[in-house]
Write a structure and sequence with these properties.
The strands form two sheets. Strands 2, 3, 4, 7, 8 and 9 form a six-stranded parallel beta sheet that branches. A three-stranded parallel beta sheet has the order 1-6-5, with no helix packed on it. The radius of gyration is 16 Å and the shape is globular. About 40% of the residues lie in helices and about 15% in strands. With about 210 residues, it is an alpha/beta fold. The relative contact order is 0.22. It is built from eight helices and nine strands. It starts with 11 loop residues before the first helix and ends in a 5-residue tail after the last strand. It binds zinc ion (ZN). The site of zinc ion has 5 residues, from loops.
Length: about 210
Protein backbone atom coordinates (compact mmCIF):
# COMPACT_ATOMS: atom_id res chain seq x y z
CA UNK A 1 0.00 0.00 0.00
CA UNK A 2 1.36 3.38 -0.92
CA UNK A 3 0.28 5.79 1.76
CA UNK A 4 0.17 9.50 1.08
CA UNK A 5 3.59 11.05 1.77
CA UNK A 6 4.19 14.69 2.49
CA UNK A 7 7.49 15.74 1.03
CA UNK A 8 6.81 19.41 1.48
CA UNK A 9 6.20 20.71 4.99
CA UNK A 10 2.69 22.20 5.09
CA UNK A 11 2.81 25.94 5.67
CA UNK A 12 0.39 25.93 8.60
CA UNK A 13 3.08 24.27 10.70
CA UNK A 14 5.20 27.41 10.34
CA UNK A 15 2.44 29.31 12.10
CA UNK A 16 1.79 26.71 14.77
CA UNK A 17 5.50 26.39 15.60
CA UNK A 18 7.00 29.79 14.88
CA UNK A 19 10.00 29.19 17.13
CA UNK A 20 11.36 26.58 14.75
CA UNK A 21 13.20 27.39 11.57
CA UNK A 22 11.42 25.67 8.70
CA UNK A 23 13.14 27.26 5.75
CA UNK A 24 14.75 30.44 4.54
CA UNK A 25 13.82 33.35 2.34
CA UNK A 26 12.78 32.46 -1.19
CA UNK A 27 14.65 35.58 -2.29
CA UNK A 28 17.99 33.97 -1.54
CA UNK A 29 18.75 31.80 -4.51
CA UNK A 30 19.97 28.90 -2.41
CA UNK A 31 18.92 25.65 -0.85
CA UNK A 32 20.32 24.04 2.27
CA UNK A 33 21.27 20.37 2.15
CA UNK A 34 21.17 18.71 5.55
CA UNK A 35 22.28 15.20 6.50
CA UNK A 36 20.97 13.58 9.68
CA UNK A 37 22.25 10.84 11.99
CA UNK A 38 25.96 10.59 11.11
CA UNK A 39 28.82 10.45 11.20
CA UNK A 40 29.07 6.88 9.94
CA UNK A 41 32.19 5.31 8.42
CA UNK A 42 31.95 4.74 4.68
CA UNK A 43 28.57 6.50 4.45
CA UNK A 44 29.51 9.98 5.65
CA UNK A 45 32.84 9.56 3.90
CA UNK A 46 31.05 8.85 0.66
CA UNK A 47 28.89 11.94 1.15
CA UNK A 48 31.94 14.09 1.91
CA UNK A 49 33.74 12.87 -1.20
CA UNK A 50 30.71 13.55 -3.34
CA UNK A 51 30.20 17.05 -1.91
CA UNK A 52 33.87 17.86 -2.32
CA UNK A 53 33.81 16.85 -5.95
CA UNK A 54 30.79 19.09 -6.52
CA UNK A 55 32.15 21.88 -4.31
CA UNK A 56 28.99 21.87 -2.18
CA UNK A 57 28.82 22.72 1.52
CA UNK A 58 26.15 21.17 3.73
CA UNK A 59 24.92 21.00 7.31
CA UNK A 60 25.26 17.71 9.20
CA UNK A 61 22.98 17.08 12.18
CA UNK A 62 25.09 14.57 14.05
CA UNK A 63 24.40 12.13 16.84
CA UNK A 64 26.80 13.01 19.67
CA UNK A 65 27.64 9.39 20.29
CA UNK A 66 28.77 9.02 16.68
CA UNK A 67 30.83 12.20 16.94
CA UNK A 68 32.71 10.59 19.82
CA UNK A 69 33.07 7.26 18.04
CA UNK A 70 34.32 8.72 14.76
CA UNK A 71 36.40 11.80 15.56
CA UNK A 72 38.35 11.60 12.30
CA UNK A 73 35.23 11.83 10.15
CA UNK A 74 33.94 14.62 12.39
CA UNK A 75 37.16 16.55 11.93
CA UNK A 76 37.11 15.97 8.20
CA UNK A 77 33.54 17.25 7.95
CA UNK A 78 34.47 20.46 9.73
CA UNK A 79 37.74 20.92 7.83
CA UNK A 80 35.96 20.65 4.52
CA UNK A 81 33.79 23.62 5.40
CA UNK A 82 30.59 21.86 6.41
CA UNK A 83 28.62 22.67 9.53
CA UNK A 84 28.42 20.00 12.22
CA UNK A 85 25.29 20.47 14.34
CA UNK A 86 23.36 18.87 17.18
CA UNK A 87 20.97 15.89 16.82
CA UNK A 88 21.13 14.76 20.50
CA UNK A 89 23.57 12.31 22.03
CA UNK A 90 21.68 9.07 21.31
CA UNK A 91 19.06 10.04 18.74
CA UNK A 92 16.52 10.49 21.52
CA UNK A 93 12.85 11.02 20.83
CA UNK A 94 11.83 14.07 22.83
CA UNK A 95 8.30 12.82 23.36
CA UNK A 96 9.55 9.54 24.89
CA UNK A 97 11.91 10.74 27.64
CA UNK A 98 11.72 13.37 30.37
CA UNK A 99 12.64 16.93 29.46
CA UNK A 100 15.54 16.77 31.89
CA UNK A 101 17.06 13.75 30.11
CA UNK A 102 16.34 15.23 26.70
CA UNK A 103 17.97 18.52 27.60
CA UNK A 104 21.00 16.69 29.02
CA UNK A 105 21.35 14.79 25.76
CA UNK A 106 21.27 18.04 23.77
CA UNK A 107 23.65 19.84 26.15
CA UNK A 108 26.16 17.00 26.04
CA UNK A 109 26.19 17.03 22.23
CA UNK A 110 26.45 20.80 22.28
CA UNK A 111 29.93 20.47 23.77
CA UNK A 112 31.01 18.56 20.67
CA UNK A 113 29.78 21.08 18.10
CA UNK A 114 30.58 24.75 17.74
CA UNK A 115 27.17 26.28 17.12
CA UNK A 116 23.65 26.27 18.60
CA UNK A 117 21.84 24.56 15.72
CA UNK A 118 19.66 21.70 16.87
CA UNK A 119 17.38 19.31 15.00
CA UNK A 120 15.07 17.08 17.05
CA UNK A 121 15.33 13.41 16.04
CA UNK A 122 12.21 12.25 14.16
CA UNK A 123 11.21 15.91 14.13
CA UNK A 124 9.44 15.13 17.38
CA UNK A 125 9.50 17.78 20.05
CA UNK A 126 6.65 19.16 22.11
CA UNK A 127 5.70 22.84 21.91
CA UNK A 128 6.67 23.27 25.55
CA UNK A 129 10.08 21.65 25.09
CA UNK A 130 10.83 23.73 22.02
CA UNK A 131 9.90 26.83 24.03
CA UNK A 132 12.37 25.83 26.74
CA UNK A 133 15.13 24.83 24.32
CA UNK A 134 14.67 27.85 22.12
CA UNK A 135 16.40 30.10 24.63
CA UNK A 136 19.71 28.36 24.00
CA UNK A 137 19.30 26.56 20.70
CA UNK A 138 18.06 27.33 17.25
CA UNK A 139 15.66 24.57 16.24
CA UNK A 140 16.11 23.67 12.60
CA UNK A 141 13.33 21.70 10.93
CA UNK A 142 12.96 21.40 7.15
CA UNK A 143 10.80 22.28 4.20
CA UNK A 144 11.53 19.26 2.06
CA UNK A 145 11.82 15.68 3.31
CA UNK A 146 13.42 13.25 0.86
CA UNK A 147 12.00 9.97 2.23
CA UNK A 148 15.39 8.40 1.58
CA UNK A 149 14.71 6.31 4.72
CA UNK A 150 11.46 4.83 3.44
CA UNK A 151 11.86 1.90 1.02
CA UNK A 152 8.15 2.11 0.24
CA UNK A 153 8.77 5.33 -1.64
CA UNK A 154 10.49 4.69 -4.97
CA UNK A 155 13.54 6.62 -6.10
CA UNK A 156 11.55 7.72 -9.19
CA UNK A 157 8.79 9.13 -7.03
CA UNK A 158 11.27 11.07 -4.89
CA UNK A 159 12.99 12.55 -7.91
CA UNK A 160 9.68 13.46 -9.50
CA UNK A 161 8.72 15.32 -6.30
CA UNK A 162 12.15 16.96 -6.11
CA UNK A 163 11.80 18.31 -9.63
CA UNK A 164 8.34 19.65 -8.95
CA UNK A 165 8.77 20.98 -5.43
CA UNK A 166 12.31 22.05 -4.50
CA UNK A 167 12.57 25.82 -4.42
CA UNK A 168 14.92 28.55 -3.24
CA UNK A 169 15.09 28.74 0.55
CA UNK A 170 14.32 25.06 1.08
CA UNK A 171 15.97 23.06 3.84
CA UNK A 172 16.32 19.55 2.44
CA UNK A 173 16.66 16.45 4.64
CA UNK A 174 18.75 13.44 3.72
CA UNK A 175 20.29 10.79 6.00
CA UNK A 176 23.83 9.48 6.24
CA UNK A 177 22.92 6.33 8.11
CA UNK A 178 23.14 2.60 7.47
CA UNK A 179 19.47 2.20 6.57
CA UNK A 180 19.53 4.81 3.82
CA UNK A 181 22.97 4.35 2.27
CA UNK A 182 21.97 2.31 -0.80
CA UNK A 183 19.23 4.76 -1.65
CA UNK A 184 21.31 7.81 -0.76
CA UNK A 185 23.94 6.79 -3.31
CA UNK A 186 21.27 6.87 -6.00
CA UNK A 187 19.41 9.91 -4.72
CA UNK A 188 22.04 12.45 -3.77
CA UNK A 189 23.67 12.88 -7.21
CA UNK A 190 20.24 13.14 -8.87
CA UNK A 191 18.82 15.59 -6.33
CA UNK A 192 21.92 17.76 -6.66
CA UNK A 193 21.53 17.70 -10.43
CA UNK A 194 17.88 18.76 -10.15
CA UNK A 195 18.89 21.66 -7.89
CA UNK A 196 21.68 22.70 -10.25
CA UNK A 197 19.25 22.61 -13.17
CA UNK A 198 17.03 25.01 -11.24
CA UNK A 199 20.05 27.36 -11.05
CA UNK A 200 20.04 27.31 -7.25
CA UNK A 201 23.20 27.30 -5.16
CA UNK A 202 24.00 25.47 -1.91
CA UNK A 203 24.55 27.10 1.45
CA UNK A 204 25.16 25.92 4.99
CA UNK A 205 22.85 26.92 7.81
CA UNK A 206 24.40 29.61 9.97
CA UNK A 207 23.96 29.75 13.69
ZN1 LIG B 1 17.67 11.57 12.94
Amino acid sequence: MNKFKLFKTPRFLYWIFPRRTWGFSRKINSVYLTFDDGPQPEITEWVLDFLKEKNIKATFFCVGNNLLKYPKITECTKLEGHVVANHTMHHNKGTKISFKKYKESIDETSKLVSNNLFRPPYGRITALDSFRINKEYKIIMWTWLSYDFDPNVSIEKILEKAKKQIKAGDIIVLHDNIKTFDRLKLLLPEIVKIIEDKKLTFEVINA
